[in-house]
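User: Show me a protein chain along with its predicted structure.
Assistant: Here is one chain, sequence first, then structure tokens.
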Amino acid sequence: MNEAAQHAVGPLNEAMDVHGSAMLDYLNGERDAAVIMHRDDGFTYPPILAERWFYEGGFPIIDTKALSLCKGAVLNIGASSGSHSLFLEEQGLRVVSLDASPRAVEVMRHRMVKDPVVGDLDSLQGPFDSILLLCGIGVTGTIDGVRRFLERTKGHLSPGGVIITDCTHPRADSLEASQRYCDLQAAQGRYEGERTLRFEYKGVFGPWFRWLTIAPEALEVHAKDLGLECNTVYSELGRSLCVLSHINEARP
């Protein structure tokens, strides 16, 4: 087994901006724009086409269900190309669209997303009735990171507000290399879903960043410790949709 190297993690905005560059090029007509994602054990994922984040063929079922749960004032964290935000705005909801990547925010501005913001949660003031993170909670990086994030996020919720996020079980990828990587994380005392990754685009490598792939059962345990109830409302192919709210509050 190859052991994962210890790589220094760089600024998140720079790491995500590699992905943002591909989306911006796609918006400007490069239909084959794609990023390559590398893992710190030397594994390379198949190219990720930027068109994926524009959902021209429609949203996956789990995304559609997540969007249907949004209500009132919405914060979309990791808004990416702004596709989810545009849908919610068309439904008449007020949406703040947050992303770490300045280029992703530029894409959103070109697409006429109403309130795109570069930054992180600490740069915003709530409260919000719905906090949406589709593929976004992974950016917390580690189990400790997700706990810190939930602690901060629940302070931005209005009474009766909800956090809506998707989870992917760390072992949903059946590739032997991925299973070995999970084993290695656990052997080194980390949660098996912690990853160290970096993007490559047009031969340019971004800095390493940490990403968390967390099972809904694990999220439920850590949320409960922080006074949040976590309910899994839909699952398919190892990916689950979870709704978090203050314990004892009504859920949608």
